[in-house]
Write a structure and sequence with these properties.
The structure is a homotetramer. The first copy, chain A, has a single domain, classed as Jelly Rolls, CATH 2.60.120.10. Chain A is about 20% helix and about 35% strand. The first copy, chain A, has eight helices and 25 strands. In chain A, β7 and β8 form a beta hairpin. Chain A starts with a helix and ends with a strand. The relative contact order of chain A is 0.15. Chains in contact: A-B, A-D, B-C, C-D. β1 of chain B pairs antiparallel with β3 of chain C.
């Protein structure tokens, strides 16, 4: 290009900029890439490295002061963004015996996956559920919720869970609202187990006078590990093993058959001892929590050894495969239901 | 009307008849009634009256000969129609120890509700489920199914279940197909419990290579009474009692939240001791089977006392209310999902 | 079988009958047939044979007296049943200049397909639509509707349309309600064309305060032939010809993409000059009205020549194929959406 | 807090940072805001200010070189982000007589709203649609598309349209793929008007052999202004005026009744002469293009006067109201269908 033309363009760009106009032809290749090139990286957090910090935070930060005593798992390639993928937030929360996290609600959808300890509860809309390691608990969008750790059967111990939220999505779409309750804890309005009895057994209530549920979140807000674990092992015994996934179940909202919350999907999978899986990839960046067993994940060619309670993240379109020298159970969550709704989910299963 | 006009009309009608034409103005009031006036009646069959006939049929009719040893509950107002309502078929089937009912499939959807005895199984698509009293078992449209009674734990006893089918609907819409298998029983291709592990725990399988289920029937084909009973009692303890229904749960297809089969809906309800319900009515004629307890149903003003294992039918738009001097559990099924799909479901809950 | 056994069975049957019990083993083969064997027949009604009767009815039956001056097309194999298939009703209605058919509503869904004449209207919920030959007009379930023939542009002529209703279905499911309005005609509350402007152009209204439409029927209640005809010819010019159907379009409810009414589907198809179609069959018995052209339908091997305004019926599972020595346009309707909802639609396209 | 505690925390934070852990308690208030506080601003671009730059770009940038000669409307509060809201991209594209924009496809969904000039076309999957001012044209995700400006009726003129894309969403979810075709233009495989004939008239094709459309985008890819304008004026004559919206229609996918593309919704509204609307707000940040008339929008208390062809943006949760001293027609688009799918759409209509 000759100098004159270059100058003319520079003049144009400058004049355009004053009008808040930008030349697409200079940036199109970045805006419409050939394939995903996420700005975040694969990473693994060892529970044994995190635990000392969690315990130290337990000493330095009171529950009242902290509102939430959580260590945010920040993607190493996106420091300061409070995100583990571009669309998801993850953190490890510690609640000590006797502590209470006061009731609030927000448009952000949240999941709690119990990593360690017994005796804490989450309450959703006035109904508590006692949490055990491996349980998958929901606090869907705009539902009042609170937590506490009164202990169970006379024993109280520190409880740690993995928080998963859609905070970055809600921020991106500028659609976040929040509100604090006026009591430390919600009044208990229904006994524990009510929602599960009403919706958790492939049945649903028939009421004469009832407001139709308009919420998109699942009415079952606690999926006990006792059941998921048994289901996985039953299927494994039946040799229903997938070459990529092992035995994998997705949690559903029994009112729709779809994801338990509109923004976050979650799965539990068993890799039977000796499993060496094939590589696959998808556009849903995914966070994994190791429930049982030692093994490894190979992500984009890089091998990550994992142990129980570790957390790792697989970026969008990075290949992943698993090896399990012993029985391994993995919990995972991602933004998959949003990608499906947008028509943006793409998956590839490599033959070797 | 004068004689001449009457004659002229008679001539017209006669000439029309030859052309297969009929005068609407003579029949409109019948074709478009003010409200439902079903040609069938409320009725109750006492199990103690049926049982001797069932046992006698067990002597006179071999399993091989009979294909199905079933006493059809024919609505007293529609003899010879093999129907309990205009759209539904119901019958009580006896299967003796050691008997086998060979594999077949048909477009008719069927349910089995176990009334008495243990040790029999239903197999659907090569997977067996052992049946216990109170279990609700499906054989959805065009699924291979067979039955047998090998006994369980070394004990074999006669087993009786209530069959519910959409035979009259399929006949009315002229859409019935059927096919016999080439073996007495299906080969068992999956261990018992597989489908329930895969779909029954608020989870669903994730497979890399899978045909999407296109069937409208639920992948959970056995809903064990152990779970439904516990759910009902949990809700009753929580005092979640409806003035018309007591505690009522509908069985769902966990893939959709809708009815377990597209043509038949089913519910289980607990009327706690002392319950005296209000009257309601709906356009879905409904068949009830008494699971536990003695009580009474007042149908269109007529009182029917019932005992465990009795069957009764409530016609479309007849009022019904229940009284339970002791804890009562009722199973029921109707054509409700079809009425909903057609926009023809109407219900009324009377205030006293 | 020996005499003794036969007698024992006879005794059992007799005793069962008193209890309203019937032996399934004696009737199973009829209840679950190998394939559909409808009790009704293929038939064709020539408009030229019907017209004299219609006109004669116009003389002998006043509009006031008749409420509806309709000649019911009764299937020749089911006399007295007021049905053209087991599930559908069809009739030809005559409305003379100046006549009015008073407002009423019923749970039965109705369609009007205009066969001859101009200047009549149907009003649905207070909005009139002027009808032209080939127009497809709906009066969905429980909508107030009335008709009149005031003429148009100063010209008034007799108008004939084909009525299609789900009367037999509503009767079978015992779900019919009806109500007469207190005025001869509804008050006109919206100008003609309102609903089409609101819903007919691939757009839908956005209102701040609005009750969500809960009706299953289409908000577009008139589908003008001018548009359907042009669409068919455009596609035919583009050579988008199906070997079985020619060019075939189904009418949709633009709010769902599904059938215009939950119980009745309708289509319009163009068989271009020279078209000789292949045979197909389906479980939805179908009523056809000839809009344009002479041709023939071969139904279950029997050839029926047709001319404009003729009506014919193809039974469930009977093969049908079409021949068109000149451009032919056919309108058709069936119970297809109900069969789809029930999982009972089956189709077969024969290769020659 | 005492110095010692502060120091202890600083030590903890530092040590956490090395492990990619961040303290939630320091940032929670930002992550979960009380209500939306979007980082972008209300803004208006006058067409008369943009046009000179567009024409100058027409001189300096050839079509071949530019691939896309588009001026991106960058939100003034987010320079360098190529975004008009956080989730949407908008730009004005110029195509000169004789130019061709080569075929490509990408997962990004795009809309074209024609602002000025006649004679250009967009082709989607081998079918062209000639564009006129006010037409709304889609190129849904992963559909091949190209453009050209051959003129019409012997006249060729510069054509300008508004591009709306979900580029920021696809980037945020890391789900973008793109591919160039191997020809400058797609081969024309179907005549113009084919898709509209097949899907645009409240009808849909019935084909014997057809792949079910799995795409989420509308099969109608051109919504002509002739129809939308007439619909709006018909409803305005019927005085169906909303106090906030005037007469407003949303474009639908006639196969679902939902938005034309899964990520972008679009509307057209008429503000009749003299209309002075009430304030409303929603979580869907919205881009408007003025089709006809002069008027003003008051956004978050700030008044923006507008003229035909101007573009303006209303941020999430900012109030907006309109005044129309003459008939005004506005086109608008937003991320509303995604917010609905995520359960994040919230709206408020203020009473004065």
């Amino acid at each position: 290009m000759n100098t004159k033309l270059l100058e003319a363009r520079r003049d144009l760009y400058k004049s355009m900029q004053e009008q808040c106009l930008a030349p697409l032809w200079e940036s199109l290749h970045n805006l419409v890439p050939k394939q995903p090139a996420p700005p975040y990286a694969a990473a693994l957090w060892r529970y044994q490295d995190i635990l000392p910090h969690l315990l130290r935070a337990g000493e330095l930060i009171t529950a009242e002061e902290a509102v939430r005593r959580v260590l945010v798992l920040e993607n190493p390639a996106m420091p300061g963004r409070s995100s583990i993928t571009q669309s998801l937030y993850a953190g490890l929360q510690l609640i000590l015996p006797g502590e209470v996290a006061p009731a609030h609600r927000h448009t952000q959808s949240a999941l709690r996956f119990i990593v360690s300890g017994k005796g804490a509860y989450t309450a959703v809309n006035g109904e508590r559920t006692t949490m055990h390691p491996g349980d998958f608990v929901l606090t869907p969008s705009w539902n009042w919720h609170d937590h506490g750790n009164p202990g169970v059967d006379g024993v109280a111990e520190p409880v740690v869970w993995l928080d998963g939220l859609d905070i970055p999505m809600v921020r991106f779409f500028d659609a976040g609202f929040a509100e604090n309750g006026d009591q430390a804890s919600q009044s208990v309005v229904r006994p524990e187990g009510h929602s599960f009895a009403a919706y958790g057994n492939n049945m649903a209530p028939v009421r004469t006078v009832h407001k139709e549920r308009k919420e998109l979140g699942s009415p079952v807000f606690s999926y006990p590990y006792a059941r998921s674990r048994e289901a996985l092992h039953t299927l494994a015994r039946n040799e229903d093993i997938d070459a990529w996934h092992g035995v994998k179940l997705r949690f559903i909202n029994p009112q729709t058959g779809g994801a338990p919350m509109p923004t976050i999907g979650a799965c539990m999978q068993l890799l039977p001892k000796g499993f060496s899986g094939l590589r696959h990839r998808g556009t849903d960046g995914t966070v994994y929590s190791v429930v049982e067993g030692h093994g490894s994940a190979t992500i984009g060619g890089q091998r990550f050894a994992f142990a129980p309670r570790d957390t790792f993240v697989v970026p969008s379109w990075a290949t992943v495969s698993f090896d399990a020298p012993e029985d391994v159970v993995l919990f995972s969550f991602s933004d998959r239901p949003v990608l499906e709704a947008m028509g943006l989910l793409r998956e590839e299963f490599l033959p070797d």
